[in-house]
Amino acid sequence: MNENTVIRQDVKTLRRIRLNVSTSLCLHEKEQTMRIKPLIIIFALLLPVAVFSAQPLSLDSCKSMALRNNATVKNATLDVLVARQVRQQVLTKYFPNVSALAGGYYALNPLVEFGIDDIGNAEARQWLHNMYAEYGAAMGLPNSLSMCEKGYTVGVTAVQPVFMGGQIVNGSRLAKLGEEAATLQQELTCDKLLQQVEETYWLVVSLQDKKQTIEQAMVFLDTLDRDVTAAFNAGLVTQNDKLKVSLKQHELQSNMLKVNNGITLATMALCQLVGTEYSEQLWLSDSIADVTAVYPQKDAAAAVAGRKEYQLLNLSVKAEQLKKKVLIGETLPHLTVGLGGSYGQLVFDRSKFNGLAFAMLQVPLTNWWEASTKIKQQQLQILKAENNRDDLTRKMELEVRQAWNNVSEAYNQTELMKATVHDAEVNLETSATNYRAGLIPISELLEAQTIHRQALDQLIDAKISYQNALTHYRILVEN
Hints:
This protein has 479 residues and is of the alpha+beta class. It has two domains: 3-91 and 168-325 and 371-477, Outer membrane efflux proteins (OEP), CATH 1.20.1600; 114-147, no CATH class. Helix content is 71%, strand content 13%. It has helices at residues 3-53, 59-69, 71-91, 122-139, 167-233, 239-274, 300-305, 308-330, 368-436, 442-477; strands spanning 55-57, 97-106, 112-115, 144-147, 150-163, 282-284, 334-345, 352-362. Strand 7 and strand 8 form a beta hairpin. Helix 2 (59-69) packs across helix 5, helix 3 (71-91) packs antiparallel against helix 5 (167-233) and helix 5 (167-233) packs antiparallel against helix 10. The protein is elongated and about 155 Å long. The relative contact order is 0.11.
């Protein structure tokens, strides 16, 4: 009897054992089905409740929730409101500064008191005494004069700046730039948050897909374990082959535990970004789409010119230029005019109204040297801001080109991994066929299954890398 005949007989024997095992399993499954029918009915009744209580989250809904609930975005919005209030404060400098005042006093003794005896000239003092003795006493006049014992006043003053060296105008422009910068910074914060949300979302999706890959591998190993157990009972394989399958099952169970923990942590991170509570019933509705075509490349220089970072750099240069104009305004004359009116009594026991108009011209004389050094210092700050803008502009162009290279590389890597998965599937099918025919040992079949699972995981990672690279590139070129 040749070797091929022995192999064919062993294969026939293995097939008969599998048929007997399958028949017994079918009978056992029928008995189990009769037992679990009530459980199926209960599960069917509870299924709508479970589905209703689940919380599906799409990528778009996560982005909307993040923009609405994330604390970083809220603070960026508050920064815009703060900058707007600063601008409103500067606008008040264009209008008159109106102030009202009221005051009064009461003294125990008159603040000013003067009599005949206080005259220093003796002849004049004597003459006044004689006149007072002859006429004053008879007329009821006092021999001394007192005033400022009590008084009050109320008034209103309005001061209007006419020329302040351009400080108010340039200050208003500077505040407007601050509001524009806060708005751009808010948009940048939103873009960064959306990128984080998308990356975290696809991380969860990739882990869920890897979990499905492990589940498929576990189903394959469970089937293989039943076959090997039947063959071992029939004496066709050794204990070593059965142990190899068990070790591979334990390895997959360990990987499943790690993936489940990763899904939990990544989902918690996603919930923190979007501002919602974590729930074990939460699930994601999107899946990794097949990569069909690479994203079109954009011109790097044009993309940089439209980026918010470039606009912020231009605003920083303009801000430094306006600061220089404000410093120049401090060296120029300042002209203000005003009106005022008051009513009350302060000296004599008689109330009256009074008004006045005034103008004030203030010309700085002694701070020219200090002001000139400040202006020169600010000019250096302008040059520094321009250098930073030019340098960062070139770096942003390199960043756009590098981002495009990452997109192209990730796309090519995805296409390569698709071919690898196809080859791994063919290899697994061939290995399974050869193993069933007894042409290869079980270790080669397990190795083929491991290669297939690793290829699927690498394809998932390649798709996620492409999605993340594409998201980053879109943020850089779509402003």
